[in-house]
Design brief:
The protein is α+β, with helices and mostly antiparallel strands and 141 residues long. The chain has a domain at 1-61. It is 42% helix and 14% strand. The protein has helices at 6-59, 93-97; strands at residues 111-120, 123-132. The longest helix has 54 residues, at 6-59. The chain is elongated.
C-alpha cells in the first residue's frame, strides 16, 4: 500500500495515536478511508471516460477527406531535349548578351568578355571568357 512496508505503517499509526489521541483517532481513520474511496472512484470514472472516447473514435469510420485522392500514376516527364534559348522564348536574353560599351582612356588596354554557353543534361551554365587585346595575355576575371 503506497510503497510502505508493515514497519513504516506501524510507526505512522503510533505517531497518529500520539498526535490525535485515542478519542479522535477512529474519526480520523474513518475520514481518511472515505477520502481515499472518493479519490479512487473519481480516478476510475475518469479512466472509463477516456477509454470510451478512445474506443468511440475507433468505431467511427474514416473521416472524409477534403481533397480527392490522387492516383498513383507516374507524372510524365519532358518528351525530348529542351529547346534552344532564343530571343523569342527567353525574356531578357538580348539584354543579357549585349556588351556594354565601356568608357576607357585611349592608352588603356582593351578587355572584352564573351559568354560561352555549354549545355549538360538539361542544365545550361554560362562561363565568362576574358580576352585581352593589348597583347599582355589573358587574365582571370
Amino acid at each position: 500500500m503506497f510503497g510502505l512496508s508493515f514497519g513504516e505503517i506501524v510507526i505512522i499509526a503510533v505517531i497518529a495515536l500520539l498526535l490525535l489521541g485515542p478519542d479522535r483517532l477512529p474519526e480520523a481513520a474513518k475520514t481518511l478511508g472515505k477520502t481515499l474511496r472518493q479519490i479512487r472512484a473519481a480516478t476510475d470514472d475518469l479512466k472509463d471516460q477516456v477509454e470510451r472516447e478512445i474506443y468511440l473514435d475507433d468505431r467511427k469510420g474514416p473521416k472524409p477527406s477534403l481533397v480527392p485522392a490522387v492516383p498513383a500514376a507516374p507524372v510524365p516527364g519532358p518528351s525530348g531535349p529542351p529547346p534552344p534559348a532564343t530571343v523569342e522564348n527567353v525574356p531578357g536574353l538580348e539584354a543579357a548578351l549585349a556588351e556594354p560599351s565601356p568608357a576607357t582612356p585611349a592608352n588603356a588596354p582593351t578587355v572584352t568578355t564573351d559568354m560561352q554557353v555549354t549545355t549538360e543534361t538539361q542544365v545550361t551554365t554560362a562561363t565568362p571568357v576574358t580576352t585581352d587585346t593589348s597583347g599582355e595575355g589573358a587574365k582571370a576575371p
